[in-house]
Design a protein that fits this description.
This protein is mainly alpha-helical and 337 residues long. The protein has 14 helices and four strands. The protein has helices at residues 3-15, 17-37, 39-48, 51-78, 85-96, 105-117, 122-151, 153-158, 161-172, 175-188, 200-229, 236-252, 262-270, 277-312; strands at 317-320, 326-329, 331-332, 335-336.
Length: 337
């Protein structure tokens, strides 16, 4: 089967609500079984976590999400649609709530349609989502490839393949290649190629924000890991690089709903040098909870921004012509139109 055929098959599988729901149930069943078997150790590890570590994990997850949003905003602006921070936050965080609904297209479609409501062409918004995903995965894998050999040679030996793909990842992030790759992916989902390509400056801004986002998301795990192990900064690099690896691979495995399963399995394996399996499982579950709280909180903030913008919008103006006909002018982003 050719690459196009494989990718098309993955898109169809991910677009099937029944298939995604089935995968989710299977993953949850295995997770539930593993949790039941390891429950005594998991319970002990949960008891070692301080409340302030859990709170710090949530704060770090929210800060990381905000940085990732700014990276997507930089991409969108470079492609020709600059948006205010508040507007971008509303589109990003409200759309991300859709990833908890079985079905692949909901979050993607929500980004595109909410962007279109703010005068962002659908093709441009779709391209920004695709490029944002590629940049996020590439930067995450580079962080893992650089950080894991320093943090733990034991872990790094199991993931030597990451070192081999670094040149490929760096090449794919070059705007000319990234543009062609984006056009190809747009073609897979039956959309036209982009008319305006990403610039080096736009890419640099997006990579910078994404790098910051990964570092903050790594702090989400480090806060919990330091609380359980008591090792502090000695496990910081392992937490950041390990979480970047787990999330990046989970994002690339598009058939798994919200990355549930692969992310936890990889994170547990990466933390093996400093945590036993029950404790690592407990940490992975709390990290998932912190991510969910972050998504729900940002989603609520995005909805509040939308309600505030709607209430602040000027009322439609009615103009009466000399012939006595009334015309209603609806307020747009730039005023009455």
């Amino acid at each position: 089967m050719c690459v196009d055929g494989v990718l098309s098959w993955l898109v169809r599988l991910r677009s099937s609500r029944l298939a995604r729901l089935g995968l989710l149930l299977v993953v949850l069943a295995f997770c539930g079984y593993g949790l039941a078997v390891e429950w005594s150790g998991v319970q002990a590890a949960l008891g070692q976590m301080r409340w302030y570590a859990v709170a710090g994990s949530v704060v770090a997850a929210m800060a990381g999400g905000a940085a990732m949003m700014m990276g997507w905003r930089a991409l969108l602006a470079d492609l020709g649609s600059p948006l205010p921070v508040a507007t971008t936050a509303r589109i990003t965080f409200v759309s991300q709530l859709s990833k908890y609904v079985p079905g692949a297209v909901w979050s993607f479609a929500a980004h595109v349609e909410m962007g279109y409501d703010r005068q962002v062409p659908r093709l441009r918004c779709a391209a920004a989502v695709i490029v944002g995903l590629l940049v996020t995965i590439a930067v995450g894998l580079v962080i893992a490839a650089v950080g894991l050999p320093v943090a733990s040679t034991t872990v790094a030996r199991h993931y030597l393949w990451i070192l081999a793909v670094i040149p490929v990842l760096v090449a794919c992030l070059c705007p000319p290649i990234l543009g062609r790759l984006t056009d190809w992916l747009l073609g897979v989902i039956r959309m036209q190629p982009l008319q305006q390509r990403l610039s080096w400056r736009g890419l640099a801004l997006a990579v910078g924000w994404t790098l910051l986002g990964w570092l903050l998301l790594g702090l989400q795990v480090w806060a919990l890991l330091a609380s359980v192990t008591g090792r502090g900064f000695h496990v910081l690099l392992l937490a950041v690089a390990g979480y970047a690896l787990a999330c990046s691979v989970a994002l690339a495995l598009v058939v798994f709903p919200s990355g549930i399963g692969p992310r936890e399995v990889i994170l547990i394996a990466v933390l093996a040098p400093v945590l036993d399996r029950p404790a690592a499982l407990a940490l992975a579950l709390v990290a998932r909870m912190a991510t969910t709280i972050s998504d729900l909180t940002w989603g609520a903030i995005g909805l509040a921004i939308g309600r505030r913008a709607a209430s602040a919008a000027p009322a439609p103006a009615t103009v009466v012509s000399s012939a006595g006909n009334a015309t209603v002018l609806e307020p747009g982003p730039q005023g009455l139109r």
